[in-house]
Amino acid sequence: MMNKRLTVFDNDPQFVSSLNSAMTKTYEVLWTKDVNDALDNIRSCKTDVVLVNFAVGVDESFSVIRESKKWGVPSIVVTHLSTEEMAINALNAGASYYIKKPVRLEDLTGAVARVTGNPDTEMDPIDRVRYFLLENYMKDISVNDLSEAVGIRRQKIFYHFKKRYGKGIKSYLRDIRMQKAQELLETSNLPIFRIAKAVGYNHFGYFCREFKRLYHLTPKEIRRAHYRAAS
Asked: Residue 119: CA atoms inside 13 Å, Cβ hemisphere, count?
């Protein structure tokens, strides 16, 4: 049986060599530092999954992520510990999964197996919590609902989620919502009160206060700044 193909968009030859050694039995690793080569692999159906390291370049990485989504190719993003905001943006752009640095090879191989649908690989319970938040951020989510949805006791969710992602569930959910709101403010003409509802806030005033507390600007100011920069 022919091995599946993994395109690695990265600029660290030592890391790629180690990854190649770890995955050689199941994947053909196609390494490139050139964004056009990565895009060509996706468009010409030469790859089954893509691994993207933001260290190569932010704009180039987002191009690869979006192209992967367009062609139905799962993508995995590697980010630094300090770039949580970037990771959320990547997921909103279409990435299937992200892993924080420092990264272990077993984490990467497990992530590749998950996004390619390996039936022998189960998603980690805390990962299931994060995916639930990403897929349901626009809904009114209680911790009890979350606990029932993923089958984990609420005390365990609180402890392990914060330990892994560096923030509590409430803060993480707020960040997802605010990132999506910022995207809608900059890419759509939706009224701001409708954007608030679209990202899960039924109380418009509370949404505005939370937005300003996080970005130090009101939603209207963010939208105006974006339009000025684009003109």
From this structure: 0
Give CA separation, 108 vs 5, 59, 104, 169, 185, in Å: 15, 23, 7, 24, 34
Separation CA 130–CA 84 (nearest Å): 13
Q: What is the C-alpha separation between 227 and 231, in angstroms, rounded?
A: 6
The whole-angstrom separation of Cα 137 and Cα 8 is: 30
3-state SS, residue 2: coil
**Sign of the torsion angle spanned by Cα atoms 82, 85, 87, 88:** positive
pLDDT tens, position by position, 24-38: 888 889 999 999 999
**What pTM did the predictor assign?**
0.54
Look up residue 216 and give its amino acid. Answer: H
Cα 50 to Cα 21, 27, 78: the distances in Å are 17, 12, 11
